[in-house]
Structure formats: structure tokens, C-alpha cells
Amino acid sequence: MRKLLLATLFLVSASASAEGQIASLVTFESTALRPDSNESENVTSTLNTSMEFTLPSNVSLYGGFTFVLGENFESAISFGSRYYSSTPAFQLFASVPMWSYLGAGVSFLDETVYYPEAGFRLATSNTSRIDVYMKIFNSSHDRYDKHILVGAGLTF
């Protein structure tokens, strides 16, 4: 009975995930505010390259690589999730809807960094989207902690 239940659960989840969309996500973030305590090792900007899988329930999962650009170069693996509004929050023009979203993620840099994020996604065409957002880095290390980053991204 357990094998039958597990097989049914697997088939249902596989069919639900097939309705989603997979897209490339490239983002650039710049530090808008950082603490003054440790000026020799601050993060100035990051570049992220990820793959994003959007589920039909307005939730997306993404994962990829993060490159920290600053006094010291670093690379890491990052994962995160976003929850989008079900209907567009604004309509800029007749054909440019804008959704709001909240998300959270983790980057495995020299020290683990957790971050909440909030932003807007603009539908520029049927196949591409532009993201404008803000992240707040939280970490046990002063190098990353309490950094507020403002970013823009392209999904295609």
C-alpha cells in the first residue's frame, strides 16, 4: 500500500511540476547601505546567474551561482524562493503588467548569508521579465551582515 501511495504522489507531483516554466535569471545588485564597522572587507556588488522554476501557484524556486564583486572576489552557490502576487499589482502601460513579490534565499559564501527580498517583476514581453528588488543580507560575519542591496535582473 505504501508503494502505491508513493507512486501516486510521485505522478501527481510530476504532472503538477510539468505545468511550470523554467527560465534563466541574471541579476546585478549594488550595495545601497552597509555598516561602517569593517570598511576593508565590504561587499560592493554581486552578480547572480540562476535558473528559475515557476510553479502554477505563483511560487518560484531558483538556484545558481553568485559572484561577489568588491575588495575581495568570491563565488558561491545560492538558492531561494519567491511568492508572486496572483494578479498584477500595477499596470504601467496597456501591455506591461507589474507583479509584486516577497522572497527569501541563502548564499553559501565564505560565511552563510541569509536574505529576505522584496520587489517587482515587469512583463516586458511574452518571454522576458525585468525584476527590480531589494535584499537585506543577514550573517554571523561582519563582512556580509546588515548590507542592503538594490538590484535589477532579467529573466528570459
Automatic annotation (TrEMBL):
Source taxon at top rank: Bacteria
Entry keyword Signal: yes
Keywords in alphabetical order: Signal
Signal peptide residues on this chain, from the entry's feature table: 1-18
Protein name, UniProt field: Outer membrane protein beta-barrel domain-containing protein
Native source species: Marinomonas sargassi
